[in-house]
Structure prediction request, 1130 residues.
Amino acid sequence: MNQILTYSVYGSAILVMLIGIYAVLTKKNLIKIVIGLSIMDSGFNLLLVALGYIKGGTAPIFSPAVAGKDVLMVDPVPQALVLTAIVIGFGVTAVALSLVIRLYRKHNTIKIDEIKTLKW
Amino acid sequence: MVANPILYIALPLFTAFLVPLLAKLWKPLVRIVPGLVLAYLAIMSVVLMQQVSPEKPIIAMIAGWKAPWGINLVFTSFSGFIASLISILAFFIWLYSFGFKKVEFDDAQKYFILFMLLTAGSIGVVLTGDIFNMFVFIEITSLSAYALTAFYKGRDGAEAAFKFLLIGSFSSIMLLLGIAILYTYTGTLNMAHLALLMPQVPMHAKITSFLLFFVALGIEAEMFPLNGWAPDAYSQAPGPIAASFAGILAKAGIYALIRVSYTIFDLGDHGGFELLLVMGLITMVVSELVAMRQENLRRMLAYSSMGQMGLIMIAFGLGTKEGIYAGLFIMFNHAVIKSLLFLASAYLVYYTSRKKISDLDGFGKLLPLTSLLFGLGAFAIVGLPPFSGFWSKLSLLIATANSHMEFVLATVLAVSVIEIIYYFRVLGRLYFRKAHKEIKVRKPTWNSVVTMIVLALVIIAVGVHPDFITGLLHNAATDLADKADYIQKIIPDLFSQTLN
Amino acid sequence: MKKLVIISLLLVLGYSLMNTFSDIEFGKKREGISSYFLEHSPDDLQVANTVTAIVVSFRGFDTLGEVTVLFLAATAMGTILFRRRSKHTGLNPQRKSPQASRIVQAAGKLLFPAIMILGAYVFIHGHLTPGGGFQGGAIIATGFLLLLISYRQFKVEHKYVTWIESLAGLSFVTIGLLGMILGPHNSFLENFLNVGSLNDLLSGGVIALVYIAVGFKVGAELTGILDTLINIRETGDID
Amino acid sequence: MNVFFIIIMGIIMLAGVFAVIRFIKGPTTADRVVALDNLSTIVVATLIFMGFVFQRFIYIDVSLIYAVLGFIGVLTIARYLEGGI
Amino acid sequence: MIGAAIYAIITKDLIFATIGTSLISLALSVIFYLLHAPDVALTEAAIGVALSTIVFVIAVRNTKRYEED
Amino acid sequence: METVLLYLGYFFVSLGAVFLFLGAFGIFRMPDFYTRLQAGTKSSTLGAMSLILGVGLMQPEWFFKTLIIIIFIAISNPISSHALARGAYKTHQKPLTDTIDAYEEVVKEDETKNEEE
Prediction:
């Protein structure tokens, strides 16, 4: 049972990540590529949080309800890392999209094949 | 307090947040204050370099938590050397670009903010002792690099920046995956602690994560199949920024690569160093060959820069102390000389939009000083005797000979010949061709002249008297080679626990 | 053909990752630094939310970097899109897009204060409940977004945004530097205040202050990003 | 009472499945957005219910924020359709 | 969620793709919640659902809506 | 008293779940956009509200926050649907035949007013 869960959770996270990478590598549309980047990040975030999960654990917050009791808590470090990763991912997405808008202004297209002043 | 490694990060960030407010007070402050801060950092690194020794690294805690639990900054002889190099170089690049975009105030403000953050991020990558923190700093560095690449409106900067961003995003996702693997097997993020716990990681996970790290950091360090961003970014960015890419960004990238492969992973016996060596060889040969065919001066310099990075990788890939010494020497030289070349070339191609080498005919008479400095840089980088490049190449050759790699030695020599050919082609055009009619040239401003002359003086000084720097390099090499010492200095308690 | 190569490459990558991660059992407790955090966050710092304690104190440097990344993103977008504020001062350019319906406008007016209060609640209680500076900042930015999309004449005052952004960032770094002077270990971002007791609003010492600064900064930065993007048609000069 | 929770969750999940089907099928943008809107309502309800199942009071904050922010995404796309942004 | 990811990739209409990413964020946020990570769920909700969506929508608005072959 | 609240809570939760289901089913089954919107909004809002109310009744100390959420949902959901309907209308998405489009004239009036401004 646990084995199945392991495979399915990690497998789906990795699959989402691979879908994102596939989109980045094959798509011709610039916005599609940026969407691929954001999907890639999502997959990774899921993977990392899943790695920090502990069965039967609860959120690492010592609220009055659990204070003083001996409760199992999930690993807080991956959560903190994911928090950072999400915010950084958003920053990168925003910058990427502004680059896309500027490329569109200049070349009047968002197809990657038609923007080829430099060698790709 | 006055000289603390944390100030390397804290002060530039403080200034970057302060600059928009300063702009409201008095506009020239936007230019002056970053320079003052960078000057302070440069002086501070001199002070710190005198305090530090391989036996006594400076370790700065953050938020009062000891090493494996909190983040710490580690200023050892090795990391401190590179951090000092970066900060001093950053000061000179600031001096060069002091008058940059004097007319358009808003742009200048952004330029200085981004440049400060680029410097801070690179120094952060070098100094941090925590692997996730390194990721954050790499992200800061690369975001400011994207923005600076797309800085000019008329050029194709946006395209280069987008390409750079794509590859950079791959790099960051690979890095994150590597970090995730290491974290789950060891439960820690501190580099020294990771190195200590590395034996308990199973072999296949170790190899996977090593490859992920290698690819991710290889992108930053301009390793061969992954350096598609570099020539475009170098050629589209503003001149001083191209210099800082070569001198600052690439240095941070290669530092991270070396730190990861030397300290964290114990793959020396399983081909970890050989991988570095082979990739370095391929990078060097391919990029020097491509550099020969380039028409565009900036692109040629960019490919030559990649070739030098390959040389550095070869030196570190030898895995011996001599190799490390040679690699550090090349790093130093490359930072100084390539910056000089890029800064000088910025004036050579100032008014030509295509930046073709063939447009450079007869510039030797039009811009005598700049051309002279460019020529000096070219002589130095190919490794001709009176300049500093000679000593670094010599030490590399000795190191390869001592580890019995004749093939590598021969290749390095052959590639040097190629390098000589293409640099001399440019010099020939500069001095031995007649100028086209009606060439507009721009005379360099006083601050850029001062910058270039100082860099040239450094090259000559080190070339005539290499002992200026060999002591520092020896200390740094000793420091990097001794991994157990690094672990013990950072986490003494846990280290002694595992011994018992 | 190219696609096939890429797919096979991805399969190799996926296989090796899966191979690595399938050894790690899902939901199993592992040794590591996290147990130290779970022990010391309530005891030493008196912070209920361990994630907050890690983000702000143990790994506070990451947070500083993260805030910088957002600041950088805002600056970078300004650079990339050539937004020149000086050109438009006093003109107050109006967006030409159609006005939102009155219902949406009324809702914007009604919900905006509520969202602001919610955002403030989230970042003030960052050390007690889930959430904190980033989330609170994002919520505040969303509140401004609501106004931006429901009123076309609504304009974010850049003067204030810049001031808030800079002051919040400066106070973050200043708190860190104060820690170097006043803290017991003389290290950056160190706590130098009384930590209070667990689950009080005034607990955690410097953590709450840092998260408030982060909240203001993130809110201002995200608002700036959104405003830059929304006004792009009118202010970005087209070449 | 576990059976009761499972039944409720099953019903909600079934609702989610229908909304997702409409999301995939929906011929126009607006249809998809309706499905998204409905899904976010369902998610708010689910989150509160799961908080109850987990018996953690603090989890409610998440759904509180979801209730506020989920609609702004929908509103944005609606304004886009209108030509408003 | 995987379905939404695939959908976001294959569809030709970029607005649909944007809605797809929004849906991914939604699902991701629920999963984070179920994995007992409310902080992350909150962040994903705040950034993924509202802000990311609008950033993409504005980008589409300023460029082209349909992806042509 | 507590048992009464508990059973009341069960009742509301079940009611909410059923309404949520009906709303989603309506979205799935209805023939055109406007009817779907109607099913989705009305039914789901009621469902979510009553489910949350049920939870609030079962856990009396949570009641205050659940009340806030209910108020938010009550405000925000109709607004988003309204904006959505307006947006769909502007993209010339016609309802099924045999319906009387009274909104057309309002829109025209609005436009003329806007132009005057």
Remarks:
- The radius of gyration of chain D is 15 Å.
